[in-house]
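User: As part of a screening pipeline, I want to sanity-check one entry by hand. Below is the sequence and the SMILES for pyridoxal-5'-phosphate. Please return the complex as C-alpha cells so I can compare it with the automated output.
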Amino acid sequence: MRMASGVLREALIDVDAIAENVRHLRRLTGVEVIAVVKAEGYGHGAHRAALAALRGGATRIGVSDIDEALALRRRGIRAPIFAWLHAPGASFVEAVRDDIELGISDIDQLLRAGEAAQGDRPAAVHLKIETGLSRNGIAPDAWSTVFAEAARLERIGRLRVVGLFSHLSNTSDDDDRAALARFEEGVLLAAAAGLNPPLRHIAATHAAIALPEARLDCVRIGIGIYGVSPFEDRTPADLGLRPAMTLRGAVAAVRRVPAGTGVSYGYAYRTERDTTLALVPLGYADGVPRHASGRGPVSIDGRRFTVAGRIAMDQFVVDVGDHPVAVGDEVVLFGDPTLGVPSAREWADAADTIDYEIVTRIGARVPRREVHA
Ligand SMILES: Cc1ncc(COP(=O)(O)O)c(C=O)c1O
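Assistant: Here is the complex for your manual check:
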C-alpha cells in the first residue's frame, strides 16, 4: 500500500475504537467508567480521546495534572474532570473555578482545597487513600484526621466530597484483594466521620476486568480504552478490545547494496548478501525506542521485517531482501494485530518495556490523524 503523497510519518487514531472499547468495558463492568486521558490520552490525543470516550458512555474524565484538566475544559469538555497529582503548594483556585475535581492525598492539599472554595461553590474532591501502592494517597495513620477535617469543611460548605479512591499494584489478585480490604476499612472510617461520597473507586483496567469485586461504584479505565491489554497473557482481542493507534511511515529511500554492507550507526548490522535496504522515517525523537534496535518488527505490504541495526533519532533501516519495495510504500510499525500488522506488545517486548509506554511515548512530531472504523 502507498502512503498519501507528502506524508512522512503519522499515527492513525481510530476514535470509533476508543468509543467502542469504552462501550464494551461499561457493559462488562456494569458500572460507570472514568476515562483516563492523562499524558495526551496515552499518546492518542487527550481531547479526541475524551470526546470519543464520552461518546462511548464514559461519565467522567480522569487526568493526572490540573493543567491537563484545564486544557480539556478550555477545549470545551463539559463532563466532570478529575485530576490527582499536584505541584507542591499549588493553588487550587483556578481548578475550582473551572469545576475540576481534585484528588486529595494529604491534609495540606485538603486545606488548600477548602481555601479555594469560591462563594457558594465548594471544592469538589476525591480523597485518595493509601492502600499499599506506596505512592501518593492519605497514609493510614492520617485517615482519621483528614476524614474529620473533610467532614467539617463539607459541613461548612467549603468542600464537596465526591469520591473516595485508591489505586492497585496489579501484583497479584491476592495483593489487590488485600488492598481492596484496606480500602473498605478506609470507607468505613470515612463513614464514621460522616463522609458518604457517592463514588468509591479503586480499579483501573486490570482489576476492572479481572477482579469484579473491585468495580465498586466506578472504574478508572486508561489503557483499556485505547485497546491495549494490561495482561501479560491476554491480547486485546481476547478482552474484546480493539487497538486505537496505528503507527506508520512512508519508505523514504530505497537502496540496493552488496553483501557485507554496514547499516546505520556502529554497523550493528551488516548485510549477509546482496539486498535492498528501505529507510523508514521514524526514530527515537518520535518515540520509537532505540532499545528495540535490531529487534523491532514492521510490516510492509503484508510482510514482516525487522529493524536492521540501530534506530537513530529520525529514522531506521529495514533489510527487505529481494522484496520489491518502493519509495512511498507504507511501513506499519504497530497497529491492530488481528489485521496482520505487529502489535504495540511486540515493540514492548523488543524494547524490554510495556505497551503502555510504547503508545504513550509516540512524540509530538508524529501527526495524529483521526480515522473512523
Ligand atoms: C490513579 C490512576 N488511575 C487509573 C489509571 C489508569 O490505569 P490503566 O491505564 O491501567 O487503566 C492510572 C494510570 O496509571 C492511574 O495512575
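Points to compare against the pipeline: The chain has a mean pLDDT of 97. The CA atoms of residues 106 and 138 lie 5 Å apart.
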